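A.,

Following up on our hallway conversation. Structure tokens first:
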């Protein structure tokens, strides 16, 4: 039952994140390209009501993700975020009257089936992070936090690098959130606060990278990259950096690959892209 509730919360979290990104993207498209990967981009956006509303949706989503991670392992919760793409597909069909073909149905089925299999094959709880695992998360958070600034220094504010940067950042937020839950459960309040700061730093950079990606790339290309990394990276790393691994390794690997494949297929669908960013051309 705990795993089932965690999966439902993961889907709800993803839907809230998608709504957040949708509202934010509408304003990001209207900003100057000169602000790409700069704090001035967010300084401009924070003055716009629609973008602030999207940010509030994202802030509501994060505690839901934390609760889900307290109920089930990161290897289950992060792939469950792909269920949000199915919500967007339904919105695209019902609200925007987009057409759905075998490709979209196959992607939705792949994600749904994969999440069910992961609920069986993945460990029910994340388990304690090893010391080396915590170091890995620190490195990932540092890479995520520095990502936009490294890309700006290299002059790479285009779609693919910024989408990858955003995906890595949101993956880091997921792992840091799991460590916050661990700190709270063990009553290590200082550690929980430090991991909270790490999640905030990665989240800031993820937001900056994602808003820049949405300035320069169609949603049909940005969504698969961001969602795929956010889903797969924490789930793939979890067995290596915690003391609990999957009970059925082959099924776990196959299901994770299917979840990512379904996310790529759905994320590149016009129906999903239009639902996520209704005023932009996918």
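Then the amino acids I'd put at each of the 282 positions:
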């Amino acid at each position: 039952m705990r795993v089932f509730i965690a999966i439902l919360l993961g889907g709800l979290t993803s839907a809230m994140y998608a709504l957040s990104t949708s509202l934010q993207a509408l304003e990001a498209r209207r900003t100057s390209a000169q602000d790409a990967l700069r704090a001035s981009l967010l300084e401009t956006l924070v003055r716009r009501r629609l973008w602030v509303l999207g940010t509030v949706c994202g802030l509501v989503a994060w505690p839901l993700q934390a609760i889900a991670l307290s109920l089930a392992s990161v290897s289950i919760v992060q792939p469950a975020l792909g269920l949000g793409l199915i919500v967007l597909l339904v919105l695209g069909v019902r609200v925007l009257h987009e057409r759905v073909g075998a490709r979209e149905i196959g992607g939705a089925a792949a994600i749904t089936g994969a999440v069910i299999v992961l609920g069986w094959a993945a460990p029910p709880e994340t388990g304690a992070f090893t010391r080396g695992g915590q170091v890995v998360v620190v490195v990932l958070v540092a890479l995520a936090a520095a990502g936009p600034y490294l890309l700006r220094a290299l002059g790479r504010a285009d779609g693919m690098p910024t989408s990858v940067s955003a995906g890595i950042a949101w993956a880091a937020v997921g792992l840091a959130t799991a460590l916050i839950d661990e700190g709270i459960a063990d009553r290590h309040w200082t550690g929980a606060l430090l991991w909270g700061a790490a999640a905030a730093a990665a989240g800031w950079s993820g937001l900056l990278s994602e808003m820049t990606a949405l300035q320069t790339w169609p949603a049909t290309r940005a969504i698969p990259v961001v969602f795929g990394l956010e889903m797969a990276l924490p789930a793939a790393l979890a067995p290596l950096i915690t003391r609990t691994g999957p009970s059925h390794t082959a099924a776990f690997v196959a299901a994770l690959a299917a979840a990512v494949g379904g996310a790529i297929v759905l994320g590149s669908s016009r129906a999903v892209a239009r639902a996520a960013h209704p005023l932009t051309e996918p």
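The chain has one domain: 2-276. Curious whether your intuition agrees with the design.

B.
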